[in-house]
Amino acid sequence: MVKLTKRMNMIYKNIDLKKQFSIENAIDQLKNLSKVKFIESVDISINLGIDPKKTEQNIRGNVCLPHGTGKKIKFAIFTSGKEIAEIKKLGIKLVGMEDLAIKITNGEKDFNVVIAKPEAMDIVSKLGPILGPKGLMPNPKLGTITNNITKTIKKIKNGQINFRNDKNGIIHASIGKINFTNYKIKENLHILLKTLKKYKPLKLKGNYIKNIYISSTMGISIKITKDCTNLIN
To answer: How far from each other are the two terminal CA atoms of the chain, in whole angstroms?
Structure first.
């Protein structure tokens, strides 16, 4: 049996996990229980009523959160020619083609978004074993395989995030930082849910959004009451 730390014991003693919370109260609980020395992310887990084994029911897309995630975005860009100099002017250092692929193969990890020109995918595809498990492989459905790299960079810097369900039909996403106002966190969640609604499979029977949990980086998951889905109406 895993022994709980004093911090986790404190959290469990101060919250009833059998209870469901309104989004406002859930955010307040996360803030009150955050006792770490860094600014935690606020994460959301949305359990969808889809069958992940059916290709037509899998959910994948992107959304621009009005208040961003608060995370620092670090790019790796696969392109060539004059565009390399243009992108480096934006403060992005990891830019190139075969040379960038070699850096990543040799252990370069200082990036959390990968964007590629279509013609670079022969090179990028060979990095699948490295990028794939981290969810970093460029994909046209996510807008990360594109001919307009500068525009895509600006969108992501302005709060665009990608989402896709895991093998259990759950969407995981970051919707802000613990020091965001409640309003900003709620509005980010509102836009995410509203966007997910547009991706609902046409032939899906039953509830599309089954359960929603909110958590902080070092905290616990709190279940949000179903009235939270009113945000998408």
So the answer is: 44
